[in-house]
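Changelog note: in this version the structure field was regenerated for every chain. One regenerated record is shown below for reference.
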Amino acid sequence: VNLRIRKLTPRECWRLMGFSQRNPDGTWTDDAFDKASKVNSNAQLYKQAGNSIVVDCLEAIFQNLFLEPDHTEYREINLF
């Protein structure tokens, strides 16, 4: 079986990390990436994407950790 592995582009990495924004008309924009790509090499763009956190995922994790199922009251978590 001949498999071919394709490397993600820096733009795809930035999109996976949540840097794309939805416009009011429903289209997506990569303004942050476009600005960064003018002054950074591809290697730097890959590093920047890798050093970031997907905010949507982190928000979901925090909601599950600290909010009650109805999402109106905070609860305390004991780690020890």
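Spot check on this record: The mean pLDDT is 84. The first helix runs from residue 10 to 16.
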